[in-house]
Fold these 3 entries.
Entry 1:
Amino acid sequence: MPVAKETEGYGDGSVAGMTHISPAQALPPVAGSAPTASITPPVPGKPSIYLQVGAFSDVANANRVADQLNRAGLGPVSVVETAIGGRSVRRVRVGPLADVDTADRVTDQIAGMGLPRPQVAVD
């Protein structure tokens, strides 16, 4: 799975220089499964809504969760590598999502998969 890299993190969840993986670069959903979330391209000047499902020091764990999310067809999935406190971590995110209602619905679906409830990230 392609990994986008952040060039700088502030340690408080905010980032500078983050490059997102486009939906076309993410792993495709399993054949026959349709995404259930609304995918909307980012609008210049308008923040995008993402759900951060986890942050992993182990790349295999990040990829395993990303693969699970891709198979569920919840929307575009990205793995973003960043450094926090001198450690390299991979944030697994779903999005951008169309709106807050969609984010709430996808949050419930992710929790229903047995994964932790994701944190909302607005970029």
Entry 2:
Amino acid sequence: MFQPTYPIRTARLTLRPVTLDDLDDVYAYQSRPGVVRWMLGAEPRTREQSRASVYAMAAEDAWRAEGDCLTVAVVSGVLAGKWRSPGPRGAEGRTRPAQPQGRAGRQACQARRSSQSR
């Protein structure tokens, strides 16, 4: 089992567990048709469906067994990350706001655009 000690700090960001306080942010992206068609493969979610999603994300705070997810949020912005446990099926996914927020968000978008144009 692996359970991080929170908050997780790097030079540029601080990660924390997802909590019910994230409902507004999660609902903001889960209710957008242009987002859910790629993420959920379904219709935009209602606020209550997003609430259930947030409860599920909040429970993903450790890798207890292969295939488990670890979901975290960035302290200074609307971003959630999900990492599947290490192993042959390990994966990582990210969700970010539609518009970059602050200098770090602009820099990340610029770096992504730069790498895509190569």
Entry 3:
Amino acid sequence: MGFGGISIWQLLIVLAIIVLLFGTKKLRGIGSDLGSAIKGFRNSVKDDETNKEEPEQLNKPSEREQTDTEKTKEREKN
């Protein structure tokens, strides 16, 4: 017996029917799309964890913001 009373032979028959219905190319495409979606999810979770560890960097102004403020100060002087 397999999962929940389904034997391995029944699972193989269902798998064969799915391959016949969709074809191997479409199943391969679905698999690669699913894999890239999982990879993107993992990367976003990693990015979120690194952002939580380094909150100081979020509060610091970037170089562009610093130059913009310097330019505004120069304009106000003139």
